[in-house]
Write a structure and sequence with these properties.
The protein is mainly α. Helices cover about 80% and strands about 0% of the residues.
């Protein structure tokens, strides 16, 4: 009888050990599959990011090509010219070029090449130009059509505030004026 109890106890201990080993292997297998799934998901996210960047790069190139044609050929510029017709043609061509500079910085920000501080610093620099400021004022109506919650509209409001800060600054050291707002 005592032998049966000892044998039964050993069998129970062995069974419990096997059950624990099986559970441990199953848990390790599940964790490995979860980690593989996480890695696959990260890989897909990186592929999507690369695809988005490639699309943005293409869009930037396309924007520049279209604007270049408009700058070079007034008959093509008429297609996209929404500026006040009292503005001389040469000034409107400068506005197209100013738009190319602004959009270039916007795309650099969207692609993650510039962070918000970097974008703000570059905008602070280019808006030292009187032509850029004239362009900005002349394109106010175009910006008014943007979805207010869009990144482009938020950056537009940031530029508006920056120009106001630059105009009101008590210093000639424009490179220290203003701070980018949190986005």
């Amino acid at each position: 009888m005592a032998t049966r109890k000892i044998t039964a106890g050993r069998l129970a201990t062995t069974a419990a050990g096997l059950l624990l080993a099986t559970a441990t292997l199953t848990l390790a297998s599940r964790q490995r599959r979860l980690e593989e799934a996480r890695l696959q998901m990260r890989h897909l996210e990186l592929e999507e990011l690369a695809s988005r960047r490639k699309a943005l790069e293409h869009q930037q190139r396309m924007h520049w090509e279209l604007l270049s044609k408009a700058i070079d050929d007034p008959s093509l510029a008429a297609v996209i010219d929404t500026y006040d017709k009292s503005i001389p043609a040469e000034k409107r061509r400068q506005f197209f070029y100013a738009n190319a500079w602004y959009v270039n910085l916007y795309h650099l920000y969207r692609m993650g090449i510039l962070d918000l501080d970097g974008l703000f610093g570059r905008l602070r620099e280019i808006f030292q130009s009187p032509v850029l400021r004239e362009y900005w004022e002349a394109s106010r109506g175009q910006r008014a059509t943007l979805e207010p919650s869009s990144d482009e509209a938020k950056i537009g409001r940031m530029v508006d505030a920056l120009i106001k800060d630059l105009d009101e600054a008590d210093t000639d050291e424009w490179w220290v004026v203003g701070n980018p707002p949190p986005m």
